[in-house]
């Protein structure tokens, strides 16, 4: 069992035991070093046109190549980053790195390169009034044009407030697109649609789960379809684009297409990939049939 002893404050634990508090302490303390030592990497998950199967964009998702714990997913360190404020330098790095990678792919792959990149932005980053200046610099330094950058936002207490609204309008004026991530959950609500110049709704994965299941009578389950249908109808009425998240099988993709979704993301379409793996996958997809690279 873990023990915290007096002023020495050291902690002992048995190998392999789940120690969430300890893990969080270590993660928070090590994250600064991880940033300095380039231990963070971005993986990229394709965002796919459901009709053609083509990758039209990618979402940048941070991973931590931890020297002893292996490849860590955001769920294991983003909460600590949010608490400690390190999410701000982490997010700044992610934005610049994603822009740089996009230009590198365009140079290497030409038309097969993804056209757009989505970068997740924390509410902490938006609270900084100089965030639009940072975005401008990231675009200018990389050479990426603003129309190829999508900033993915979720709601939180910090997303409200006049400073943030001004920031989001400034970003919109730069030509960058704003997406509401995890749309339909408590983190991303209808009220944001009218407060912010949003262009894209990302239907949360929880509304895709089970969408392919029929009722005992063998009919589509209208109760499960109701939210995805309503979100697509609302997006059509408001002239917004949609991306359905978390597509795990072809039956879900079919149902979403029937509801009017044209664009989706999920393990069935592709897992998030390291940049080199994504480049290989894209150049394969682009090669004419019969000339597939080995
Ligand atoms: P998100 O922005 O909603 O990203 C989508 C998450 O869903 C990713 O998890 C992705 O791997 C996962 N996913 C995609 N398709 C499927 C599927 O078919 N099934 C299932 N079960 N999951 C799927 P990941 O990479 O673990 O990231 C989790 C969250 O961490 C992200 O959710 C985002 O909120 C946050 N995050 C990731 N990178 C960054 C970053 O650079 N900055 C900030 N602020 N947050 C980040
Ligand atoms: Mg996202
Ligand atoms: Mg999402
Ligand atoms: Mg999510």
UniProtKB/TrEMBL annotation:
Coiled coil (UniProt feature): none
Domain EAL as annotated: residue spans: 24-286
Domain of life: Bacteria
UniProt-recorded name of the protein: Diguanylate cyclase (GGDEF)-like protein
Organism, scientific name: Catenuloplanes nepalensis
First-to-last residue of the parent protein present: 493 to 786 of 786
